[in-house]
Amino acid sequence: MINNTRLLTNEIETARFRPCCVNACSKKRFKIMGVEFVYLYLFGIGVAFVGWIAENTARLVTQGVWDCRFHILPFISPYALIPFAFHILLRDPDEIAFFGKKVFKKRTKYTAVASNLLCLALICSAVFLGELAIGNMWEKLFGVQLWNYSAFPLQVTQYAGLIPAIGYGGGAYLIFRFIYKPLLKAITQKVNFSVAKTICCTLGVLIILDTLAMALQIAIFKQPPVYWSVKLW
């Protein structure tokens, strides 16, 4: 009887202690504005793959080419930053907020429309300026041309133009508007933290190394690596 009482007491004490341990471990995890870093990074890995598909789809339609996009793995790392930008700089398309500070103090149907239009304009502008800056940076530093929009109308140099900015920016906006929040919520609720951390520490690191390998080859050989390319038409 005494042993059973002690066993029951130990189980009660363990049950009381376990939630405290879970909460303590949860608090130690690195978070960005309330969301754990590994889940944003996991989302970013998915977006990096979608970006690889999107770029190849655009090249397939315009040039009939499907290739590696200068990477060994089917991921383009800059796209992985998109969920972080959404979370930190925009937060919600209906209530846009910079670093958590809302642009519109009260939410109405009019401010929601204005917020979405502002969000779309900012994303398209970020695509335009980002491509312009990155393309010119690689050319200035290493004398290489990573892409060329000269065949498109309304281009600004070969690295940026209205059509690519609207195309890629519009696609990013649609992801933000309809997919980002529910998918991030599903990831945080259904993907075990240890699993997410393992993916980020393995695949996530490999993606970074792949990008560094691309940069190193460009710096040494003055041309981007093309590991494989298929001309379909």
Q: How do the helices and strands line up, and which of them pair or pack?
A:
Elements: H1 2-28, E1 31-32, E2 35-36, H2 37-63, E3 65-67, H3 82-90, E4 97-98, E5 101-102, H4 109-142, E6 155-156, E7 160-161, H5 162-190, H6 193-221, E8 229-231
Antiparallel strand pairs: 1-2, 3-8, 4-5, 6-7
Molecular structure report:
The termini are far apart. A two-stranded antiparallel ribbon has the order 1-2. A two-stranded antiparallel sheet has the order 3-8. Residues 11-24 have low confidence and may be disordered. It has helices spanning 2-28, 37-63, 82-90, 109-142, 162-190, 193-221, and strands spanning 31-32, 35-36, 65-67, 97-98, 101-102, 155-156, 160-161, 229-231. Helix content is 67%, strand content 8%. The chain is mainly α and 233 residues long. Helix 2 packs across helix 6. It is globular. The protein contains 6 helices and 8 strands.
